[in-house]
Please model this.
Amino acid sequence: MGEISGDAVSVAGMLAGVATVVVGHPFDTVKVKLQKHNTGADGMKYKSGLHCTARILKTEGVKGLYRGATSSFVGMAFESSLAFGIYSQTKQLLQGGITSEKPQLHAIFPSGLFAGAVISFILCPSELVKCRMQVQGTDSLLPSLSRYSGPIDCALKTIKTEGLSGIFRGGGATMLRESLGNAVFFSTYELVRYHMHRPLRDASSDLTHLVDVGIGIVSGGLGGIAIYRRSGIRGCYTGLGPTIVRAFPANAAAIVTWELAIKTLGIKRE
Model:
């Protein structure tokens, strides 16, 4: 990756985060519903991810798949902007300002680790609010007094009842996941992008745009799958299907948007 200005990275990263939520949030909603309702005392509620999706669409419509998306859009836009910015700047620093065509894992991996650790402080409260909003769908058993009118109401009630530490519940696990996840994601993305680009460099200018999009889809998608295969180690297998299915399109959308935004902003890359 060539040298990129901080402002351009922030804008491109923010757009990548928005794309991730647009494509990936419905899958995430299904995952959260499965984890909530299929592991309770009442036994299995949904037969599969498809059954869960059909139930949500029937009872809540398409908006049900995007329940809790508001906090996700804000959180992911800020998180992605920060993640790509920190990653890019840290990698340049570790490379001593020297740009290299071939990916340098000694700079890529620790840069991803550091970026993931920082964004976990933003992602943890954002995810907690998102999950609580998703779970309280129209089929929720929560009493009316416990329901949330929106993300801000959810955050305020959480802080009121559980204290400030309540909004950061699971912070340690989130930091570990994001640190390792981002290190694996960026390493996979950079390596796949490099090896796919080499044999296609002589493609005609008419195909360059399509080639870049195709490479973005594959490199981003494979990077996402690499992350989620690792997340399965935690043992939370309920809802793993929608999580893995989500990994490829959501991360592919993020990388394609990132690549196109960088080009649109006039940033040249090797």
